[in-house]
Amino acid sequence: MQATDQREPYMELQEGSDSELWQSEVITSFYGNMADTAKTTHPQPAGRPEKGAEFGYVGIDAILEQMRRKAMKQGFELNIMVVGQSGLGKSTLINTLFKSKVSRRSVMPSDEERIPKTIEIKSVSHDIEEKGVRMKLTVIDTPGFGDQINNENCWQPIMKFINEQYEQYLQEEINISRKKRIPDSRVHCCIYFIPPTGHCLRPIDIEFMRHLSKVVNIVPVIAKADTLTLEERDFFKQKIREDLRVNEIEVYPQKEFDEDSEDRMINDKIREMIPFAVVGSDQEYQVNGKRLLGRKTRWGTVEVENTAHCEFAYLRDLLIRTHMQNLKDITSSIHYEVYRVRRLNENNTHPSDQPNGHSNGVPTHEVLSHEM
Ligand SMILES: Nc1nc2c(ncn2[C@@H]2O[C@H](COP(=O)(O)OP(=O)(O)OP(=O)(O)O)[C@@H](O)[C@H]2O)c(=O)[nH]1
Ligand SMILES: [Mg+2]
Hints:
This protein has ten helices and nine strands. It is α/β, with parallel strands linked by helices. A hairpin with a 2-residue loop joins strand 2 and strand 3. One of its GO terms (cellular component) is cytoskeleton. Keywords: Cell cycle, Cell division, Cytoplasm, Cytoskeleton, GTP-binding, Nucleotide-binding.
């Protein structure tokens, strides 16, 4: 299994002329601020108090502007993985995500080829830019499972891949001479595809999510939701939430990581909607004079981005618009942290001192054993 990593050109962009430009801008604005201070005028952050009400104003709020500028220069990275049984539309949903409002402009005109069956773990990256903010969205496609007679450990290759990304990050982090910015290939979110049976979660779904939810943020979705009626969909969603609760599977956003009552309120709404019932398509059709992503049937067109038709737009908004930073924070401060502590404790010495096997002395197959 191999992941196609297209990170390097992006990193070059970070460390090339752009960052020099940024440094010079920072220096200019720093001196600018100092000069301003001498003239008793302060930097101009948003929400600055009126003149006259300025006595004692230090300008701490200007840090927000500094952080914004830095973040704009660095850009954002998000790594999403899709997993689930074969044929549920994982590869199609990736194309949907890239072709939907997330990056429609950056996509080449569609080739009308059918999506082939996925046979290896593969990453696809897109650089998206909107209002001067750059984002590198990487989606990791995985081969469908469930084709084997014995599907007992079908979650293992996925777990191994996720842990390998943590391991790579850890190795980079503990290097004496490390990169200015560690390339982040850690999986920030794993979209789990549930087949639209309309009944309940299958043992294989429970097994998969039970293991994976301990190492990664899981967002479950009902695949091919156009095959269910609205009543079936609502019933199925409710049943899945109940099954998750009974089996103590914590999917994203996890209750225990809500930071305050505002978080809880927003996340409770999402938890009531989960799993999102999605429809995927990479074909565009003309509907009422507009070109829309959809699935054309004999009875009409299912519009993928229309929330009256399916919940793809809610999923996209959660991933990109409302919870991107939180997905990354939880990955880094919870999932990766658990992995890091466990690995460092295990070795009891500096991991790179270990001989043979894996780069840190642990044979590759043992990376698997770091699940809890
Ligand atoms: N009805 C319906 N069909 C879909 C949907 N999404 C994808 N399909 C169709 O399902 C078939 C399989 O789609 P893929 O995207 O290749 O499925 P996959 O999960 O990547 O399959 P593997 O690579 O084998 O794991 C294709 O014929 C798609 O056109 C959907 O939302 N609704
Ligand atoms: Mg596929």
